[in-house]
Amino acid sequence: MKYLVRNIDRKLDSWLKRANRTPFLIIGPKGCGKTCTLLEFARRHYENVIYLNFQENSDAKKAFEGNLMVDDIVFRLTAVNPSWRFIPGKTIILLDEIQDCPRARFALKSFKNDGRFDVGAAASYIGLNIVHSSGTPMPVGSEEIFPMETMGFDEFLLAKGYDQSFIDRLLDYFDKRKPIDLLAHEKMLSLYYTYMAIGGFPEVVSAFLEGSSITACYEKLRSLTASIKSDPSKQRNDRGRACYSPSDCSRIAEAYDLITSFIQCKDNRRYVVSHIKTGTQYDKADAVNYLLNAGVAIKVENLTGLSLPLEFSAVPSSFRLYYSDIGLLSSRFTLDTFGQIAIDGDLGMDKGFLYEAAVASSLHKAGLKPYFFRKPSGLEIDFVIDYHGCATMVEVKARDGRAKAAKTVLSHPEHYGKTRLIKMGSMNIGEENGVLSMPYYLAFALGRTSF
Fold first, then answer.
1. Which residue from 55, 162, 200, 390 could staple onto 151, CB 3.0 to 4.6 Å apart?
2. Do 38 and 56 meet the contact criterion of CB atoms below 8 Å apart?
3. pTM of the model
4. What pLDDT, in 10s, does the model give residues 64-96?
5. Is 52 among the domain residues?
6. Per-residue DSSP letters for 92-123?
């Protein structure tokens, strides 16, 4: 499978240029491409690559038993594979699925202090949040963490063959508030509809690029979804015991399915934890927290006001959940509907929730924490973000709309404070009376450019 260029590649290349480098750790949800990124980075920059996967190689764990002096670790690893060569300055040691070997993660401190070999590691979000029984401490200050998500639309464009200069040109249009050339705009919209269907899991994107049918992509997504839902049953602690009981696993699967139910609600998309059928309220909350810790879901909290910092006005008990990757939502529909989304992003009359979910995922991948604002009076704003020092409302429109609620907020700064408004839809870039309009597909730009 051809390697798909990722934004994290540039961050790792910058890491390589530093003197006295600290071992790095890539963390992200299952299936986001961590392993491929590790191996591609090593292939491009090192003569010798030592790759250990702690889920697949039991001997790899044993190499980190006993003392953690680098010379002793290297001696044990050489015993595991005599063909490995440890040449100072020319070797990188890759520790994949490091959450399954806490002592290997603790050993990062030894590698940092020793300095002869570079070390890169990868771990799943959920693995790092499981409480291990060994009590092994973490290497505080001895690892540089790089979060990673599934592919954003900009990465999808790179995979489709567009180069970085094309994406930079799109960003330049955005910076200058100039409408994008009509041909390019229409092409980007068309590609975005496809992206909304297949999502950003590299395995699915690769299948699409290699000529697989929409049906095949749909089946891959459905299989991936089933794997994600069954993942809790596979989690084991250091003693080999299941981390989650069968009833826990059932609740987690139900919590996952309810995300779709609530984000389709017309009146209020708030997630109601009590709708999970079994268990205590604490058990139900734990099921939701699993989805968040696994990086499968995004929590978007309601606000009581629009003053910065927004987190001070957040109501943790009133929230919406969205899937972290839009493909997880699209895969919940029938194949016919999935295909229609891929063609023109159409779900019929009520399609606003699909675009809202896609924007939520894009804002999350851009490194922006989205909130929403809903008052008992019915006034409601899709998203609010802290964007370059200003509370900024983001209204998502499946069709061109007037964003009446947001304009009410703008016209009453005495009640809501200083705010700004961004309207997202199929429209081109434009700005009028301080209100910025932009296409859905450029949501990633909000994490990169100034207002």
1. 200
2. no
3. 0.93
4. 998 999 999 999 999 999 999 999 999 999 999
5. yes
6. EEEEETGGG-HHHHHTHHHHHHH-SSEEEEEE
